[in-house]
């Protein structure tokens, strides 16, 4: 059975969701439904357009550009779109192995590691911003996250050591 993933937008140039100038994929579908979510319209799994090979090819071409620092996955919930995202991330990794891949998730890293499918996507990325958005902990001064409970995690070092290693405060 073919997996159908939907997306709300692809940004060729994004400076808000990770270090440098990045290409971002906003998938649709999220069951976390955080209060005051900044992308509430992307919580609906039927929102947006159907992802095809054309979108994968487009994203790979964007990420390969010398001006692009890497790829960011957000939405929606990337870890509720794993089967659709894995081939995309692997295509990007094959075409531009030096570029960093970030993902934003309402799940914590521990939640992700407990699920085999979600863990497969985690192993393909470099930086995870984890934890649900909590409106009471919202802080516009935070870099690359919306609320102070969220962590910016170096995935590779965390998987190597078995302890959460923050990429930045």
From TrEMBL:
Pfam families: Fer4_12 (PF13353). It is an enzyme of class 1 (oxidoreductase). GO terms for molecular function: 4 iron, 4 sulfur cluster binding; [formate-C-acetyltransferase]-activating enzyme activity; metal ion binding; ribonucleoside-diphosphate reductase activity, thioredoxin disulfide as acceptor. Keywords: 4Fe-4S, Iron, Iron-sulfur, Metal-binding, Oxidoreductase, S-adenosyl-L-methionine. Its EC number is 1.97.1.-. The keyword Zinc does not apply. Its cofactor is [4Fe-4S] cluster. It catalyses: glycyl-[protein] + reduced [flavodoxin] + S-adenosyl-L-methionine = glycin-2-yl radical-[protein] + semiquinone [flavodoxin] + 5'-deoxyadenosine + L-methionine + H(+). Belongs to the organic radical-activating enzymes family. Activation of anaerobic ribonucleoside-triphosphate reductase under anaerobic conditions by generation of an organic free radical, using S-adenosylmethionine and reduced flavodoxin as cosubstrates to produce 5'-deoxy-adenosine. This is Anaerobic ribonucleoside-triphosphate reductase-activating protein.
């Amino acid at each position: 059975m073919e997996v159908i993933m939907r997306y709300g937008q692809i940004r060729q140039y994004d400076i808000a969701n990770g270090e440098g100038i990045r290409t971002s994929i906003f998938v649709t579908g999220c069951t976390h439904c955080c209060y005051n979510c900044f992308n509430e319209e992307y919580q609906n799994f039927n929102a947006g357009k159907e992802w095809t090979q054309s979108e994968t090819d487009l994203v790979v071409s964007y990420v390969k550009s010398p001006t692009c620092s890497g790829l960011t996955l957000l939405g929606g919930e990337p870890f509720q779109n794993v089967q659709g995202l894995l081939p995309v991330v692997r295509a990007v990794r094959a075409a531009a192995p030096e570029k960093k891949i970030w993902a934003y998730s309402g799940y914590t890293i521990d939640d992700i590691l407990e699920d085999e499918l979600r863990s497969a996507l985690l192993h393909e990325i470099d930086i995870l911003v984890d934890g649900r958005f909590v409106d009471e902990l919202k802080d516009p001064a935070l870099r690359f996250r919306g609320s102070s409970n969220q962590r910016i995690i170096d995935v590779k070092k965390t998987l190597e050591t078995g302890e959460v290693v923050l990429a930045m405060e």
